[in-house]
Amino acid sequence: MTTFAGCQAVLTGPDFLVPDREWCERRIPEGIGRPAADFFYSSMLATNHDAHDRLRRLVVRELSARRVAALRARVEELGAELLDAFAEAAAGGAVADFHELVALPLPVAMVGELIGVPRADQQGLSLLGDDAVRLLEPVRTPEDWARADRGVGGLRTYFAGLLHERRSRPADDLASALAVGPLTDSAGLTDDELVDVLVLMFAAGFETTAAMLGMAVHALLSHPEQWALLRRRPELVPAALEESLRWDAPVPMTERITARATEVAGVPLPAGASVIAVMAAAHRDPEVFADPDAFTIGRPDGRVLSFSAGAHYCVGTALARLEGVVLLRQLLHRLPRLTPSGPPTRRTGDGLRGFTRLPLALAG
Ligand code: HEM
Questions:
Q1: What residue range is the signal peptide (predicted)?
Q2: DSSP H or E segment with residue 68
Q3: What averages of pLDDT result for each successive group of 10 residues across the chain (364 residues)?
């Protein structure tokens, strides 16, 4: 499905469900018995109805707009620290990697702190997370499975330890809320299920956001007239972030299965059909966006499906947007002379867009 209305109908309609464990067993038998498949197909992203509500309820409150707004000062502090390190690396006209120095460590630190991961452990965990997100590939190769198994296995071991620790010494973080919180008791989750909630929150929370930050900066700098407009009118920062989420969405597509015979956009579908909602294509739908291929901040028609819609609407939306808005504002003030310096390197695969290297410099 490539139109905006079609994607919205698929993501929000009651006839469409996410592929679940039963579907995995029938359609991708090579996943059976693998830790990565066991994790993914029992997670929020691959459960429906009551099984999904039971998991989602545990985390939505922790990531509500109000809770996230309280994190603003911390995002500002970390952003300033990382931009200083970037400016130092780029001193004297040197080329520095914005992805490595800013776009990746900011969300790793934010989601790490939200969960309760000490800073010293964050980078190692992000490497495991990088392996785990191969699960987002629409068609997983044997190498994707092997990497995902490795990542999920390592993250499960780490978060089992953290949960154990928080049980005896609770702190003010998500791991403690899950370890000793009243919600957990009422939902009756096993320890293995709680560990997997933390694994999902960590893995889903940083790669996507790092991708968004890098792609927003790249989109702005590769459209100098838009960057100049933003420098003149910094109040357009939230709109600039939305336009970058439209123009280059970190998660370009997602899959649904028809629960019964239905139709979408006039196309009849049998029960059990697989439908791919291609949000990246919906974002270029000329029925919704005038001149859709142009990167234009402050569009009147700016609304995005980058965080999906419906029952699985991303729970980290407020945090991701906060990080994006704070960082872009800081860039305008601290590094207004930022400029591209050589071609960036894109991630491989189709499940998640973004950069693995974004070389930038400070113009003289
Ligand atoms: C720019 C950053 C982000 C993007 C583009 C993004 C994108 C998405 C998308 C597209 C989905 C739904 C997939 C579907 O409908 O099949 C999703 C779900 C989810 N996201 Fe995000 N996400 C981002 C940041 C975050 C952050 C910061 C967190 C956590 C701190 C997070 C946690 C989750 C979780 C737990 C789900 C599962 C929700 C459910 O299935 O009910 N995400 N995200």
A1: none
A2: helix 65-69
A3: 97 98 90 94 96 93 88 97 97 96 98 95 95 92 95 98 95 91 75 95 96 98 97 97 98 97 95 97 97 94 93 97 98 95 94 97 88
**In this structure, what token pair is assigned to residue 1?**
């499905």
Per-residue confidence (pLDDT) for residue 61, from 0 to 100: 85
What's the pTM value of the predicted model, to 2 decimals?
0.97
What's the pLDDT score for residue 23? Answer: 92
Compute, in angstroms, the gap from residue 250 CA to the centroid of ligand 1: 10
**45: domain range?**
4-362
| Choice from 56, 108, 208 to test ligand 1 binding pocket (greatest atom count within 8 A of CB) | 208
258-267's contacts with Cβ under 8 Å and 24+ in sequence apart are: 258/15, 258/16, 258/17, 259/14, 259/15, 259/16, 259/17, 260/15, 262/13, 262/15, 262/16, 264/1, 264/6, 264/9, 264/10, 264/13, 265/1, 265/3, 265/5, 265/6, 265/9
Which residue, by CA, sits nearest to atom 41 of ligand 1? 312
Ligand 1 atom nearest to 43, measured from its CA: 40
Ligand 1, atom 4, lies closest to the CA of 208
- What is the distance in A from the centroid of ligand 1 to the CA of 316? 6
Residues 6+ apart with CB under 8 A from 280: 248, 249, 252, 253, 353
Total structural domains within the chain: 1
CATH of residue 184's domain is 1.10.630.10
The reported pLDDT for the residue numbered 186 is 63
- Residues near ligand 1 (Cβ within 6 A): 18, 44-45, 56, 63, 111, 200-201, 204-205, 208-209, 212, 250-251, 254, 306-308, 312, 314-316, 319-320
